[in-house]
Design brief:
By secondary structure, the chain is of the alpha/beta class. It is 48% helix and 14% strand. β17 and β18 (624-625) form a beta hairpin.
Length: 676
């Protein structure tokens, strides 16, 4: 629904003259962040009654006078459905409940308070909210009449207290949402006895405010509470796109602290020891594919918001399925269990799991995955299996894991769960921006490695990760070319004698493309290939190291080359706003601590956003600058964007935290588009 500008309505209702409207707009243009009505109220041009009247007219709502509020009878059936802190914080009063239609009637001063209205609807279990507009002072007086003065109520735990972690301890912060007061008290006592550091919230609005603390990474919600959340998860993710919301049947010590049980720890230790030995295989192509599949499955599972223990199960199931292609493991697997299951697609995986007795859902995921691979249904019956199923197919068809999954799956996309396909597509697009899967504190970008020597490969992998690089892998020359074009690494380390496209031809192929021609290439050669090595340098290779390779020397050359290899990022990362909304894109870049410019085009409109070291500093759209431009840009749903890393040409015209700027822009955008 379209709404008339409030200034024009004030003029048409005879509340303001055109000159008055101009005076208010000039005050806003001079940097006044508040809305038109609030500014006019402060300037004495409108009184509260007139403001309530014009807001009601603008949003096609009924307006209640202060006299009507004085004589209003409030229904206990409506009022008792919503916690008092919500009513006080948002200035809302539930006054009636229609049981036949599941509609709650509410009186409040602000039709644009979408968070408050949604909180009332969620707590009341209503299908819809019917809003009546009244003056702010009138609503406050009505609340005082019903509840007593605020100081007599107690402020309550409006923002959860987050206790500091013990010195030297690092662990995931957990916020527990529990709206039952008795349960909440017991959980707090339990957490205190266990010396935990969980925070507790009694309503979804508290969670939204608590997420301003960047240490919180997970929110726990009981199943029966989760059913009443409504759109609150979406509100939370606007603040924290990386948030994990875990639904649990009941709270317990392991869920509250995020600590793994002894069985899980024992399994992981045993399994990792085994994989360390298996990693020395020379089957680089299988190892590379397994790495991609596991990374993609983990990121997709997290994007879908499933519980952390379920993410682990999905990752393990995906990993052991990929190990099926390691031919040398088959006799070892039979030795471990001395049993074979001729009817299974994954005999190696099942024998390995049986030997190490994994806890949790891993075995069930394998069962469901085999059922899906055999053409069974229904689609989506087991989310973990659907993730492994889609990731397995995408990685095998893409070769690089860097492509649109819908195009890769083709007609077969109908046989995959839509939300899993969407999650995989989102992860791959974020990966193209160089953010997904990057280790904490990574500052060096990514390095693409294509080495056949398993010892050098493993050592370099660890050294690069410790140096802050994200490591990508390829097994052949064509795969290096495809991955380099999709991911634009800061540097490439490859064998001179790569399969299918050797080192010299590889360098020449990379130099032919505008996207990859500036990426430094370090080659590793055998002593017998010195002549080819010298020619490779003439062809454009950064350097050639002859085996045996000194790891410290190689790492130093990678760092130096990578420092110069960030230039290709300036070519720009392109996409469509319909695939990746601008608020999500900005959050992606700010969470990665990037310095970047985002150019936006929608029809005839052209604009730009500037980000410096993870902070939003400037916005422009057409003739608008600053917050007004940002508000209009985040409202765009169609168009294209280009991200240029390491370059910001706009002058600073935004102030405040990125989170506040985005949330305020989204709120104003919703208000302008008429979402009460």
């Amino acid at each position: 629904m379209d709404y008339d500008p409030i200034g024009a309505l004030c003029t048409s209702l005879g509340l303001l003259t055109p000159d008055d409207v101009v005076r208010v707009l000039e005050r806003q243009a001079a940097g006044e962040r508040r809305r038109f009505g609030d500014v006019a109220l402060e300037m004495g041009l409108l009184d509260e009654g007139s403001l309530a009247r014009v807001l009601a007219t603008q949003h096609r709502l009924n307006c209640l006078s202060d006299a009507a509020l004085d004589g209003l009878t409030v229904s206990d059936a409506a009022f008792d459905r919503v916690p008092v802190p919500i009513l006080r914080r948002h200035g809302l009063v539930p006054i009636g409940w229609n049981e036949d239609q599941d509609v709650i009637s509410v009186v409040g001063p602000d039709p644009t308070d979408t968070i408050g209205l949604e909180a009332v609807r969620s707590y009341a279990g209503a299908r819809a909210v019917r809003l009546f507009v009244a003056t702010r002072s009138g609503v406050a007086a009505l609340l005082d009449r019903l509840l007593g003065p605020p100081e007599d109520l107690g402020s309550g735990d409006l923002v959860p207290e987050i206790r500091p972690l013990p010195e030297g301890l690092r662990q995931e912060r957990v916020l527990v949402l529990e709206m039952d007061e008795r349960r909440s008290r017991l959980l707090r006592r339990l957490d205190g006895v266990e010396e935990g550091t969980a925070a507790f919230a009694s309503d979804p609005a508290q969670v939204a405010r608590a997420l301003e603390n960047r240490q919180i990474g997970r929110v726990l919600v009981r199943d029966e509470v989760a059913e009443a959340l409504g759109d609150w998860e979406e509100v939370w993710r606007r603040t924290r796109p990386d948030l994990v919301v875990q639904r649990v049947s009941a709270f317990g010590p392991s869920q509250a602290t995020g600590a793994a049980g002894r069985a899980v720890s024992a399994f992981h230790i045993g399994f990792l020891r085994f994989l360390l030995a298996a990693a020395e295989t020379r089957d680089l192509e299988v190892r590379t594919r397994a790495w991609r599949a596991v990374s993609l499955a983990q990121a997709a599972a997290r994007a879908l918001g499933i519980a952390p223990d379920q993410v682990e199960a999905v990752v393990l199931a995906t990993l052991v399925c990929e190990l099926e292609d390691f031919t040398f493991l088959k006799p070892l697997a039979r030795f471990l269990t001395r049993e074979e299951d001729p009817g299974s697609r994954f005999p190696v995986a099942r024998s390995l799991l049986a030997a190490f007795s994994p806890p949790g859902e891993t075995g069930r995921i394998l069962d469901a995955l085999e059922h899906r691979l055999a053409g069974g249904g229904p689609i989506g019956a087991h989310l973990g299996a659907e993730i492994a199923y889609t990731v397995r197919t995408v990685v095998r068809r893409s070769g690089t894991g860097q492509a649109d999954p819908v195009s890769l799956l083709g007609d077969a996309v109908a046989h995959h769960a839509p939300r899993v396909v969407a999650a995989v597509a989102s992860v791959l697009q974020w990966d193209a921006l160089g953010t997904e899967g990057a280790p904490a504190g990574a500052t060096g970008g990514s390095v693409l490695v294509a080495l056949a020597d398993p010892e050098l490969l493993s050592c370099l992998e660890v050294a690069l990760a410790q140096a802050g690089f994200r490591v990508l892998f390829a097994a052949s020359g064509p795969e290096v070319v495809r991955t380099a074009a999709a991911s634009r690494p800061a540097c490439i380390v490859a064998d001179l004698g790569l399969p299918r496209i050797g080192g010299r031809l590889l360098v020449a192929t990379l130099r032919e493309s505008e996207t990859t021609r500036r990426i430094p290439v370090l080659l590793v050669a055998d002593p017998s290939a010195r002549a080819s090595a010298a020619q490779a340098i003439e062809d454009g290779a950064e350097d050639v190291l002859v085996r045996p390779v000194d790891l410290d020397l190689l790492l130093g050359k990678v760092k130096r080359a990578a420092a110069r290899g960030r230039v290709p990022e300036e070519a720009g990362i392109r996409g469509r706003l319909g695939d990746l909304p601008l608020p999500d894109l900005v959050q992606t870049l700010t969470l990665g601590g990037r310095t970047a410019s985002v150019q936006v085009r929608s029809g005839a409109l052209e604009g730009e956003i500037g980000i410096v070291k993870g902070s939003l500093v400037a916005a422009r759209l057409g003739e608008d600058r600053g917050e007004r431009a940002l508000e209009r840009i985040v409202a765009l749903r169609e168009g294209t964007f280009v991200v240029t890393i390491g370059e910001v040409g706009l002058e600073r015209n935004l102030a405040g935290s990125t989170e506040w700027l985005l949330l305020e822009a989204l709120r104003l955008s919703d208000e302008a588009q008429g979402h009460p």
